[in-house]
TrEMBL record:
Annotated GO biological process: coenzyme A biosynthetic process
Coiled-coil stretches noted in the UniProt entry, renumbered to this chain: none
Organism: Spirosoma telluris
DNA/pantothenate metabolism flavoprotein C-terminal domain boundaries: 12-223
SUPFAM superfamilies the record matches: CoaB-like
Entry protein name: Phosphopantothenoylcysteine decarboxylase
Highest taxon in the source lineage: Bacteria
Molecular function GO terms recorded: catalytic activity
Length: 231
């Protein structure tokens, strides 16, 4: 990062944030889709914390039951990975901070039926194609005055996989959690994370509420990485 940023305090007034949250749904036909277990709780908690500290947040949200009433948060609802990517491309150029907390589908059906697929054969084969890698795409476009945070949910070789993702996506900070940690990840009101910085620093945290985890992430951003100084 250049000298535009220095660690001052937790005040994020004036910061423009792009944040993604929730799952995506990849249509198979008009009534079925491929998705995952993400609830959006972590992303929405982080949006609230950043907004409370003064940031203006654009929250690109996949389908979720989570809501927010904070006046500094603008929710942009999307459904598919393609829709989320298009929204991110639109808002990314003006974002100083981008946090990619959504659980985006890696694959989408190659062909989407325009009518409900009827049950016929014993076996049914669905051909899938890769979706756009949002983090990698934005990472290639990232300017020196932009800061990107990604998330890595892993089941094995957690630290190594997260460190590799940090580099390959051109992230500045990655939030790692593991499905092997009880009470963490999808469907819980709690989470347990490890924060890995681009400079190699690693900070591990115990099991906490997702609100408290959001505060830990915001603290790392605001006090260590991304507080604007007066020009």
């Amino acid at each position: 990062m250049n000298s535009l940023f220095s660690s001052v305090n937790t005040n994020l007034t004036g910061l423009t944030v792009l944040l993604t949250a929730g799952p995506t749904q990849e249509a198979i036909d008009p009534v079925r889709y491929i998705s995952n277990h993400s609830t959006g709780k972590m992303g929405y908690a982080l949006a609230e914390v950043l907004a409370e500290r003064g940031a203006q947040v654009t929250l690109v949200s996949g389908p979720t039951n989570q809501t927010t009433q904070h006046p500094a948060i603008t929710v942009v609802p999307v459904r598919s990975a393609a829709e989320m990517y298009a929204a991110c491309l639109h808002y990314f150029p003006k974002a100083t901070l981008t946090v990619l907390a959504a659980a985006v589908a890696d694959y989408s059906p190659k062909v989407v039926a325009d009518r409900k697929i009827k049950k016929k054969e014993y076996e049914f084969r669905l051909e899938l194609v890769r979706t756009v890698d949002i983090a990698a795409s934005l990472g290639r476009q990232k300017r020196d005055d932009q800061f990107m945070v990604g998330f890595a949910l892993e089941t094995d070789n957690e630290l190594a996989n997260a460190q590799a993702k940090l580099v390959s996506k051109n992230l500045d900070l990655i939030v790692l959690n593991s499905l092997r940690d009880e009470g963490a990840a999808f469907g819980h009101d709690t989470n347990q994370i490890t924060l890995i910085h681009r400079n190699g620093a690693i900070h591990r945290f115990g099991l906490k509420s997702k609100r408290a985890v959001a505060c830990d992430i915001a603290d790392q951003i605001s006090t260590t990485l991304l507080v604007p100084v007066s020009m």
